[in-house]
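pasting for the record
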Amino acid sequence: MRAKSKRRESTKGLVRGIETFIEVIILCVTYYLFWRHGYNLDSFFTARGKYVLMGIYGIIFFAVVKNSDGFQFGNLRKFDLCLAQWVGILITNFLTYFQHCLIQNHMITPVPIILLTVTEVFMAIAFIFLYNRIYHNTYAPHKMIMIFGTDEAVGLKIKLDSRRDKYKIEKLISAEEDFSKICEEIVKYEAVILNDVPAQIRNDILKFCYENELRVYVVPKITDVILRGARSVSLFDTPIFLVKGTGLTITQKALKRILDITLCLIAMIPAAPIMLVVALAIKLEDGGPVFYKQKRVTRDSECFDILKFRSMIVNAEASGESIPATGKDPRITKVGNIIRAIRIDELPQIFNILKGDMSVVGPRPERVEHVEQYTKEIPEFVYRLKVKGGLTGYAQIYGKYNTSAYDKLRLDLMYIENYSILLDLKLILTTIRVMFQKESTEGFEKQAENEKLVKELIEETKVDTDK
């Protein structure tokens, strides 16, 4: 049974690649038909020229959707896949429209491109539902056992239970159990999750699983994340990894700064009128200041004033105590509710980026008091200050509003240790999709509920151990 499951698993990449290829080809043909008949571009869609234009179209669509994780059929939820592919369709068709305007040397009617976009949006939905059905009918979720080192680590089960279509944790066992007993339990399952397990025990379990060809998911420690970005030194017959620990190089900083300025200047074109309308609405509602300033910490522990559109009443934190706003917080103004819902209260941070206080992508800059508090609890928290704070980043995309400081640190270090311009572009594209995800802003009510469930799971585990 396990051998059959392994054979199916080995085909995942191939099947997903074939599915992606088929979708890209069909969308390219659809593009050709709409442009050929919608614009009568016989001179541009004859002979081999049409293949060049279709090829460019397919490459743009593939690159954008690939970097938005839009081809992760079966891995992401259907809605997330739809958002990623819709973003890819919009960007591809927008660029293609202006490409043909340049070819004809004048602005052409946008009607056919709008019809093409609408058609492809529905086609994307059909592909996603079809491919997801194929995935779930072919690949059943693994029966898994989770080995945890601390009570807090059990919280991962709550998260994974939200995706029972992919993860099926049937057993929890503490790493404090006898190693032979752990091994006896492991072989009963198809996959293992190691979360916050002490280093020596983790190494022994990893070797045992490797020998028995068992799939293992490991939640990384801070040192694991740092090593992931290390460079291999191949001068000797003994493997060596180099960890510089200096953050970005001078070249990387320069390229990142150029990208920041370029993206912000482009973003200012559509953002300027929106910002003007929002500023006017805030001023008219209560006559208070348009912007809200707050001290935040960025690279090398430097402080700066982060800018936001004011979404709460004047002097909302007059007491000096920082109280996170909930969805129905009475301090939030009418305009504030709107700009928070559509996430444009952060737009003024474009000025912070142009000034050089922030970057488009990077660890989210924290308040001064939060940095002091987190650093006392987690000394490694200062590692994330090796780069400028960002408008978006790993923790904002893959985390939630109530994600723990330790998990945010792990996510931010993954970005720092694996930095590249291409990674920045990928995260920017992914941010567009994440902006529409409701769960990305889960509040503290959900956190309290999860903590209660964790306590219940720990008690159940202790009962099983006593038996």
